[in-house]
Specification:
The structure holds 2 protein chains of 2 kinds. By secondary structure, chain A is an alpha/beta fold. Helices cover 29% and strands 24% of the residues of chain A. Chain A folds into 2 domains: 175 residues, Rossmann fold (3-Layer(aba) Sandwich), CATH 3.40.50; 52 residues, no CATH class. In chain A, a hairpin with a 5-residue loop joins β7 and β8. Chain B is mainly alpha-helical. The chains are: A alpha/beta, B mainly alpha.
């Protein structure tokens, strides 16, 4: 299995030093368990790439583009050329624009599916991949995919391996010229405001109630999650009935009795 | 004697044969050291200083166990004297001189007494720290050689002989040749390798009375980093491990062993010895706690560290680098250097730090602080105190190096006390503020030499910008790095520990503490101050100056026990049966003192974290501030 790991130019949140984002180091660890991985970075300089070498990548391709240019066409062109079976990326970079959109833009450019927020990946028989997707609050969904796919790594994936200076010394960074014409990065219209810490709003939390009750609500034990029903491989008819019942319950569809009385 | 050759020739001939056998066996072993890397050795100087190193430096350590010291004086002295005297009797004038044989008999007699002393340590019950195996045979060989030799020499002195003489000679031959044979794998190797080790010691500075404790810098451009297999060590390090006599003094001193973590310094050294040759006899001492049997491959090119290799990674990461084993080793072996060299390979080449240690080392590399905290918030502890920045000054007497402890809420109290004392005494001082990075001590002990060197270079460049007379720090780990390890990278500073500066200020009359006679205090020596830098007196003198009742723990000064906080052990956090600081606090409780005085942020954090502790943990500076305030 040939794997490309996308690397971004991250900045340390405190020191501002150029570093490999943690979630990308996790992606490298994930890749190491699957097969031979090559790093891919598009950007003006290769300063932080030595760190990715130290995390276990033996080879990194660096596509040189000017600062401020959109990396997606350069990356897409290179990926179309090499055609890896799996493209791994971090969920989002750190310290830059952190839009988290590059993997999606790449998947669209290459017309291949994207599986976000993966915490574990394993190879299955006949070349397909088994991915565990994080749904938040510890819930996981297992999916099987085949063929080229973009996968983004979730911060809950196994912690990154230690950086090894010797590996960074042995690894190589190959600089490639960008093939397509440079395109300026799309400017996203954003409004900038100073960060303000806000209390986390818990849906459906009892306004009064004891601390234990509020905790229960916050952790979902007594909330919507607790009232749901989990059906494992249900009969299609039964599943349809359940979905209809649920939609009626939350008021999307009219109640069964009410519908009859109208007609 | 009825044989063709007279006994006066056969007996000295036996000793010459023994010498030849010992030489052959020694050379067979020495051939293995040649797989090691080259090392610069000052041969002539080493040879000239050998008697002094043995009789002064080695004796100083051996004599901590007076029995062992006396035993060696008698048995080793007797063995050498009797063998040399007998060997000389190959000269006809001596061989025919009967009183000479009385002298030889006397020397053998002394050896015989020594042999019994050797035996008494092992029979009927061997001391717990000693190894069994081939060492259990040693007393028999010694007794046979000494008793056989005594009788043979007496026969030669008195005349006579016959069958009785042949039996005595056969006994001496069995014992003597057995001893010579043991030079390759057995107990007698420690004598041959030990003497050579004293000549070719990798840290000759140890014998010059100065603490030679700085880790040697690693050339980061070298083809291989650190030690993966025996052949990666320098040849004189391999020789030094062969000097190990398995006395087990290191294991009784080792805090990790005491805590039931999987480290036994003796077994570690013996694993390095055994790793060198597949023919090495089985280890017969105490195992690594947890009874993890390491049955990996052996040989000069076999990997030493790994879950399936001879040394489990947990063993390697248990070490607190406290140097207690080095301090106790009568053979002057450098265990900590071996541990760090092995760690360097694990960390630099394989990225095999224990999972818990990855985050602090990564943060250290990326942000200059193991906690990833902003460097500017290092001075937050001093909110409300006037803490001048050196950037705002033309130059100061004292640069105060705050260290990592400044981020800690508890230790911030100690630093506040120290800063107030500096103000009180009118010391002209300043701090680097946001420009101070970590010294890299943690990274270096965990084998990440690349990060250490990068931090050292950055700090040295920062320090070069400013003018100051000396650096004062309350952190012995920072002190050791700045004083002893930065010179290799071009940073030479006068570095003083805060307790030494406080003593100086008291003696100069700039601080006038009152007396606190109601307090009973026991002082816990930080390893990096006492053992690494030999400073044990200043903190005690400060405590005496404030008139507290000072009590000593059984293990104090250079032989104090570690708090468990060094060498990255707390971040690696290898599980054991007990915790090291709990053991140390129990030792402190034995003194009955109500206060344990500390002088190191790591010790403060480790000892303060002990549950059920009755004694209070106070930094020397805090106690002095209390006395100064009482004296107003």
């Amino acid at each position: 299995m040939r794997i490309a790991v996308l690397l971004s130019a991250g900045l340390h949140p405190v020191s501002g030093a150029s570093v490999l984002p943690r979630v990308e180091a996790q992606a490298i660890r994930m890749a190491a368990g699957l097969g031979e991985a090559v790093g891919l970075h598009a950007g003006p300089e290769a300063a932080a790439l030595a760190e990715a070498l130290g995390q276990g990548l033996a080879r990194i391709e660096h596509v040189g583009i000017a600062a401020g240019d959109d990396p997606v066409p350069a990356l897409a062109a290179r990926l179309a050329e090499t055609g890896p079976d799996l493209i791994l990326a971090g969920r989002r970079s750190q310290g830059g624009d952190e839009s988290g959109l590059v993997p999606y833009a790449l998947a669209r450019a290459l017309s291949i599916p994207l599986v976000p927020d993966v915490v574990a990946a394993a190879r299955e028989a006949e070349g397909s991949l088994r991915l565990d997707q994080s749904l938040g609050r510890g819930a996981l969904r297992r999916v099987s995919v085949r063929g080229p796919v973009v996968v983004t790594c979730h911060p809950d994936a196994p912690a990154p391996l230690a950086y090894a200076f010797g590996r960074a010394r042995r690894g190589s960074v190959a600089t490639l010229a960008a093939t397509p014409a440079a395109i300026a990065a799309p400017t996203v219209a954003v409004e900038e405001r100073p960060y303000r810490r806000r209390p986390k709003i818990v849906k459906g939390a009892p306004a009064g109630g004891s601390a234990a009750e509020r905790l229960k609500a916050a952790t979902g034990e007594g909330g919507s999650a607790a009232s749901g029903r989990l059906l494992i491989q249900p009969d299609p008819e039964e599943a349809a009935r359940e979905i209809l019942a649920y939609l009626r319950q939350i008021g999307v569809l009219a109640a069964a009795g009410a519908a009859k009385s109208k007609t | 004697m009825t044989s063709f050759v007279p006994l006066t020739t056969v007996f000295p001939g036996l000793v010459w044969l023994m010498a030849a056998l010992a030489l052959v066996q020694g050379l067979r072993r020495a051939a293995l050291w040649r797989v090691g890397a080259a090392a610069p050795v000052a041969w002539l100087e080493g040879l000239a200083k050998l008697p002094r190193r043995y009789l002064v430096d080695v004796h100083h350590v051996v004599a901590r166990d007076p029995y062992a010291s006396r035993m060696h004086a008698v048995v080793a002295g007797g063995l050498l004297a009797s063998s040399i005297l007998t060997a000389l009797a190959i000269l006809p004038p001596l061989a025919g001189f009967r009183p000479y044989w009385f002298l030889v008999a006397l020397a053998f007699g002394v050896t015989a007494i020594g042999s019994l002393l050797v035996g008494a340590r092992r029979y009927p019950q061997k001391q717990k720290r000693l190894s069994a195996g081939r060492f259990q045979v040693l007393p028999f060989l010694l007794v046979a050689y000494a008793v056989g030799g005594t009788i043979t020499a007496l026969i030669l002195a008195l005349g006579g002989g016959g069958v009785f003489g042949s039996v005595a000679l056969a006994l001496a031959a069995a014992g003597g040749l057995g001893l010579a044979f043991e030079v390759r794998h057995g107990p007698m190797r420690h004598a041959a390798a030990g003497a050579l080790h004293l000549v070719a010691h990798p840290r000759p500075g140890r014998f010059e009375g100065r603490p030679d404790t700085a880790l040697q810098p690693l050339d980061l451009d070298a083809p291989r980093l650190g030690s993966e297999m025996p052949a990666d060590f320098t040849w004189n390090r391999l020789l030094s491990y062969d000097a190990c006599v398995s006395c087990g003094r290191c294991e009784t001193a080792c805090p990790a062993f005491a805590a039931g973590q999987p480290l036994n310094p003796k077994k570690l050294i013996q694993d390095l010895v055994a790793g060198l040759s597949p023919a090495e006899p089985a280890y017969a001492g105490n195992p690594y706690p947890g009874d993890r049997a390491g049955h990996g491959e052996r040989g000069a090119l076999a990997r030493l560290i790994g879950p399936d290799a001879r040394i489990h990674p947990d063993t390697l990461w248990s070490c607190t680098t406290c140097r207690a084993c080095v301090e106790e080793c009568p053979m002057m072996i450098e265990h900590v250097d071996a541990v760090v060299s092995l760690r360097r390979h694990e960390t630099l080449e394989r990225g095999a730090l224990l999972e818990k240690a990855v985050v602090p080392v990564t943060e250290l590399r990326q942000s200059g602080d193991p906690g990833g905290r902003p460097l500017a918030s290092r001075t937050d502890f001093a909110a409300g105190l006037d803490l001048p920045r050196i950037a705002d000054r033309e130059g100061v007497d004292v640069l105060l190096w705050l260290g990592e402890g400044a981020y800690d809420l508890r230790y911030g109290r100690s630093l506040r006390a120290f800063v107030r004392l500096l103000r009180e005494a009118g010391v002209d001082f300043a701090v680097l503020g946001a420009e101070e990075r970590d010294t890299g001590d943690l990274a270096r002990r965990l084998g990440d030499e690349a990060t250490f060197q990068a931090l050292a270079r950055e700090n040295i460049a920062t320090l070069a910008k400013y003018r100051f007379e000396r650096i004062v720090t309350a952190d012995p780990h920072a002190l050791h790095a700045l004083r002893n390890e930065y010179p290799a990278f071009g940073g030479r500073y006068t570095v003083v520990h805060h307790t030494a500066l406080l003593l100086e200020l008291i003696r100069a009359g700039k601080l006038n503490p009152g007396r606190l006679p109601d307090l009973s205090v026991t002082y816990h020596d930080p390893c990096y101050l006492a053992r690494y830098n030999g400073e044990t007196e200043a903190p005690r003198a400060v405590l005496d100056a404030i008139g507290v009742t000072r009590r000593e723990m059984t293990r104090s000064g250079r032989r104090a026990m570690c708090c468990g906080g060094g060498g990255g052990a707390p971040v690696s956090d290898v599980p054991g049966e007990r915790r090291i600081p709990d053991i140390r606090m129990a030792q402190a409780a034995e003194t009955g003192a109500g206060i344990v005085a500390v002088a190191c942020p790591s010790c403060t954090a480790m000892l303060e974290g002990v549950t059920d502790r009755r004694a209070e943990i106070r930094d020397v500076a805090e106690l002095l501030l209390q006395a100064v305030e009482a004296g107003r």
